[in-house]
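Students often ask what a 'structure token' actually looks like in practice. Rather than answer in the abstract, let us consider GntR family transcriptional regulator, a protein of 125 residues. Its sequence is given first.
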Amino acid sequence: MLDDGAPLFTQIAERLADQIADGALAEGERVPSTNELAAYHRINPATAAKGINVLTDDGLLEKRRGIGMFVAAGARERLLAERRKRFAERYVQPLVAEAHRLEFDADEPVTLIREASHTEEGIRP
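Now compare that with the structural description of the same chain:
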């Protein structure tokens, strides 16, 4: 179900974006309609439409007149590129700055990451 905190339309947009990024919704595939989303999440159809419009405005969804909304060509690649950029800004840049303050050599953070990845499931070395 939807979480507390973020506006409902934002949560709808994020869930659909996650499905596109994960490949659960492929390019050219039809996404649930505003009425389907509204019924499933028990929200106002206008709220669901606002979430879909966020993704349409971002170029991730496209409307096909009379048949619905579909995942746009290249949507997954654009999402992954944006998420990689955010990942670098949120995690890698602060890590590099802290490693510099601690006077690590260039290989030490990489070694630590590799060691940590061996202890975490689902992360490839």
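One point worth highlighting: The first helix runs from residue 8 to 22. Ask yourself how you might have guessed this from the sequence alone, and why that guess would often be unreliable.
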